Amino acid sequence: MAEVLSELGVDPELYSGGALEVRTPITGKTIAHVHASTRQEFETAIGAAHDAFLQWRLVPAPKRGELVRLFGEELRAAKPALGRLVTIEAGKIASEGEGEVQEMIDICTFAAGLSRQLCGLTIATERENHRMFETWHPLGVVGVISAFNFPVAVWAWNAALALVCGNPVVWKPSEKTSLSALGVQALFERAVRKFSEAPIGLSAVLNGGREAGEALVDDPRVPLVSATGSTRMGREVAPRLAARFARAILELGGNNCAIVCPSADLELTLRAIAFAAMGTAGQRCTTLRRLLVHETIYDSLVDRLKQVYASVAIGDPRQARTLVGPLIDARAFELMQSSLQQARDAGANIFGGERVPIPEFPDAYYVRPALVEMAEQTEIVRRETFAPILYVMRYRDLEEAVRLHNDVPQGLASSIFTTDLREAEYFLSARGSDCGIANVNIGPSGAEIGGAFGGEKETGGGRESGSDVWKLYMRRATNTVNYGSELPLAQGVKFEI
Ligand code: NAD
To answer: How far is the CA of 117 from the centre of ligand 1 (A)?
Structure first.
């Protein structure tokens, strides 16, 4: 770990002797004591970011894009090291650790191009010799609060856009993944050293727990906070931001579902379900948590799934053959077991779910993903348990399936597996999935950066990453210019003096 941090250029003082204990879920052991930012450091960092904003907003956007492009180059060079750090801290298998860094590289490429395309509309005006148009201006300091399960990519989705839009970024990472944040900041500082126009304070990392996040949420110098985490966190953060009329991008819990129709290509469906339900040990916001299978294919699909669940390689995520790494900590294991018990009490038939002992790592929590057959969509199914539990239910007709699909408080990601065009289009229509992400013949997880990412209902309504999401990071001004010598008023109003 020290070797990786040194390769990334992280100062050892930042992760030794501090108050924040960091454990690796791979062994369950403590690997670092990260310095927890003090209240004074928060004050200084947000103040510096605000000062940086006053300069950065004046740098032409394509030049701002150049800094993000340079940062992307640093990420390319450091991809193996940063990917390894994500694996160590979050327990992701090696290809997913590196995949997360690739996502950062991709959003940097996207944002560098975007920096030449930040454009507003010209709108027809009802008045002669007038022109009406929109201008997009930088907004101010952007606060980012991130969750443990995407310790680097989520920050990059926000930061790359925020920076090209003219905004500095202050980041409060998950207290469980502070080292990854230090690694990212060190790489960003490398890019800054190659770019003469970057003001001091353009990016800061403030490590700490919930209180650190609250300090960011309550600071009037931060006009936008993008917060990723549980719905519980969103419920606490949203009213505080609303109280000071700050903008919020909320990316909260999901309870993602897939419907498998009789015409589905079952081989493809099986592979898609396996990755979506068991990948990242069930610890993605987009993890597949509910499966609705048509009664005519239910038994054969569930039998096949049980074979896959029985044989999936569970263990040290650094080993090439492993597909399911550890849960983040003991608490995650307890929550998983408690949800399984509630399902059992409701009459569920459970396959898997038990702890998988790894003799070298007695303090770590490895589990066999659980396949839980339910007769009904009970309360426990309607809740997000952040662990590899897939609830499976039967359905008779598509209307009933879509009703069950939408009958949960969350609205993040969804899929249908079918080769019937009518079923696919029904699912994507206004009567279909009520989620922010709706897919056909691919699982709900593993989004690309080019699209807008986020969900509805208790998932928070926020959007990050591609499409036109950049607009959330800018201030829109509507401009009207009168280039004539008359002063006609809109709507025919007369006011002669
Ligand atoms: P969490 O809610 O425990 O913590 C997330 C972050 O919020 C951490 O940095 C934490 O310190 C901070 N925080 C917690 N309470 C706060 C408060 N009152 N004020 C300010 N900051 C606060 O979540 P977690 O366990 O790290 O992550 C798992 C959860 O995140 C799951 O529910 C998952 O679905 C969700 N998630 C959602 C998305 C998405 O895009 N929708 C992406 C990743 C994770």
So the answer is: 32
